[in-house]
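Troubleshooting: if your tokenizer reports a length mismatch, compare your output against this known-good record of 370 residues.
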Amino acid sequence: LEEIRVSKIPESISKNYEETLENMYKSHPIYAFFVGCSWSYDENGVISFLEFLRNEGDKTPSARVRIISGLCCGFKDYIEGNIVEAEKKVGEIERERIRLGAERVYFMCPEGYYVYTKLGGKAGIFAYDIVKDRVKGKVHIGCWMQKLGYSEGDIKECAVSYLVNYMGNMVPFSRKSEEILTVCPFATWKFGTRSVYSSLAKSKTTISITETVQSTKFDVDKALIDSAITSLILTVDSSADDIAFRVSSWRLGGREYFITLAIPIFSKYFVITFKQELSKLPQIKTYLSNIYDNVTLSIKARQVFEYINALSIDEYVMRLKEKIYNSSRLDYNSRDIVNTQEFLDSLKIIIRRSITSSTIEQVIREIAFM
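Known-good structure output:
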């Protein structure tokens, strides 16, 4: 299983919600809301669930929540057989719940709820149970939902099998239809869908918590990915002449020498283009500028990178090859190199190595702090 990333909700958001819910539902018992990795994979869902508590709190067991953020549920340890470590993480959740004076604790994620309950937690509530009657649409029931006893659903598939790392390469996967609603935050991210929680978001909110909350109406993840794909396509065209000029270096220093010279060229054009594409979207600027921790920005970059890295780039490689072959900057004596399979393979390496998680993060940070 790939590394599960846990990041904290920005304190400005968690404090605002805790204070708002405390003032609105002071007659309710104190409950905790365990976030775990949900902020990394389904932040829209996290905000929407908190909005649901704010708007529909009297129809829930309790809307007076304290947010537990930055802790791991122990799922990865559990499925890897490291039960001792998983139990430690469940113990941390329990101690935090008790410290907060919370009677129960909400879990958005079926995996987190399963591990917590399996390893002795007695106070858990699966958030899906209190929202499911309000969910409209086809629901994805993953393998851990099924382990919890949920046998009825429109789609039954395991998210983890759809994007795997094999010999250093990401195996491509298909994004699910936006009509399918996922419960597991990890599945929401993997499949590129909305979660059952984010589907609860209303078109208008009666109280504005922060600009970040309001920006969840805009699909930030999709916009980032779409902008990256567009930038990749445009970079193929814009970088071709400069790369064509370097093909003659193949004869001087060999294939690796050419690749070494071409990677920074393609990377430079991608950075310029990606920045331009993101700058066209004011919602992106607003959203990113309201992220206060570096971890969340890094996670956003990693999500975009993993999606781009999972794409088949054969058509982009062929397009770049044709652009180079027809470039006025290609030395006549190097045309035979361009027509080889080895050259095509080299272009694939150049594209893959040029667009890294660090490169994407660099652009996202620049947009955030512009």
